[in-house]
Specification:
With 294 residues, the protein is α/β, with parallel strands linked by helices. Helices cover 40% and strands 20% of the residues. Helix 10 crosses helix 11. It is globular.
């Protein structure tokens, strides 16, 4: 009888231990932009504060992230576009956590430093194909684009510049599945032109971020919306936040979490002073007046 009691007690202790261990694991999928910007520091501090082990993917963009959340391969996702309002993504729960901005990048040896919005559009649609028309040398522009219209960069560049998510860009471009590959190629190709995000391409040796309409793509100009290519970063779930995922999102939106984001030179929500930013901050915080599910 005593042996049975001891065995039952051991099983109870072991079950509790396994349950606690599983509870303290968070599987995250994040797009390439946020994986190299604010997410490493945010995860590090959350892990230390809550004794949580966070695993994260090493490759994949927004489509991969959102699909991972839908398939429950990831407990939580982080990316750089809002969920689409189509049948496939309409049930994804999301909230904004920070600001980024599209960056129009060239090789650091390129003599061009500034470009107009109209000329960006003409490059992307194939109307301008030579740097000579932009004041550079007589060399063809090597255009590099993301493959999918639904990627973070692919979607937001269409929405921001063309106001149409279905706009077709030049078929003569070289297409890539990942922004990381785009950045690597621009470093190697002296006459390349590509789109990335300011937070993932700044301070990378071999890359230059172009001014757009004379405005520097820096944090100050992103926050004030003087730099017009600003875009939001989101956290995704396949349901309303509960348990450990809710605790993570609460942390990301807290003063401490937003301060961590800011220290990584990513623009946080509190700092934003563009039109409607105060209302947006109130909205994001209101979403988290949600009781944790039992």
């Amino acid at each position: 009888m005593k042996k049975l009691l001891v065995i039952a007690l051991l099983i109870t202790i072991l079950t509790s231990y396994i349950s606690a261990t599983e509870t303290n694991k968070l599987n995250m999928y994040a797009c390439g932009v946020v994986r190299v910007s604010f997410i490493p520091e945010l995860n590090k501090e959350f892990s230390k504060k809550n004794k949580v082990n966070i695993s994260i993917n090493k490759k994949g963009g927004d489509i991969f992230v959102i699909e991972g959340v839908q398939k429950k391969e990831a407990d939580i996702g982080v990316g750089c576009r809002a969920p689409l309002k189509n049948d496939k993504e309409k049930n994804i729960w999301s909230t904004q956590v920070a600001w980024g901005a599209l960056a129009f990048i060239v090789n650091s040896e390129n003599k061009i430093n500034n470009i107009t919005t109209e000329n960006i559009k003409k490059i992307l649609t194939g109307e301008i194909t030579n740097w000579k028309k932009l004041g550079g040398g007589d060399k063809p522009i090597k255009l590099l684009l993301r493959e999918s219209k639904k990627s973070g960069v692919g979607l937001t560049v269409r929405e921001i510049l063309f106001k149409d998510k279905d706009t077709n860009l030049s078929k003569k471009a070289d297409f890539f599945k990942s922004s990381g590959f785009v950045r690597d190629t621009v470093i190697k190709e002296k006459y390349a032109f590509a789109i990335d995000d300011v937070v993932s391409s700044k301070d990378i040796k071999g890359l230059k971020l172009l001014k757009v309409d004379g405005v520097e793509p820096n944090k100050k100009n992103i926050l004030s919306e003087k730099y017009k290519a600003r875009r939001a970063f989101y956290i995704y779930l396949d349901h309303k936040p509960d348990n450990l995922a809710k605790k993570y999102i609460d942390f990301a939106l807290s003063d401490e979490g937003q301060a961590i984001i800011s220290k990584t030179e990513t623009a946080n929500l509190e700092e934003a002073i563009g039109e409607g930013d105060e209302d947006n901050l109130i909205f994001q915080n209101l979403q988290f007046n949600i009781k944790t599910k039992n």
